[in-house]
Amino acid sequence: MRNTVLPSAEVDRVVLAVNEACMNIIQHGYKGNKTGEIILEIFKNAEQIVFRLTDFAPPVDECNIKGRDWEDVRPGGLGVHFICESMDDIKYRHLPNGTGNILEMTKKLSKS
Length: 112
Prior knowledge:
The chain has helices spanning about 10-30, 80-85, and strands spanning about 5, 40-45, 50-55, 90-95, 100-110, 110. The strands form 2 sheets. It has a 4-stranded antiparallel beta sheet with strand order 2-3-5-4, with helices on one face. It contains 2 helices and 6 strands, in the order βαββαβββ. It is of the alpha+beta class. α1 runs antiparallel to α2 (about 80-85). β2 and β3 (about 50-55) form a beta hairpin. It has a single domain (about 5-110), classed as Heat Shock Protein 90 (2-Layer Sandwich). The termini are close together.
């Protein structure tokens, strides 16, 4: 039987991506409001791990989610790039009645 694995460098990238997604929710969704809630769910099967973040901030327009230019060197603004480079699939959805957002990030697992 083969195990599914992520090399340690990939684990670090996935942790960074989830952290960046949470920070974006706090900074942009909740606009720094410390009472905002984020629910993290993690689902794993033989092929992939799915990280689902649910928030209750105002719905975001997916078209407005973009990182700043790589050439613009300064702190902040690169989280979306890290997420896109670290994950294999990213999906945005809204909760019913405009009560929040769902971000699903999928990472495919390699066979060992």
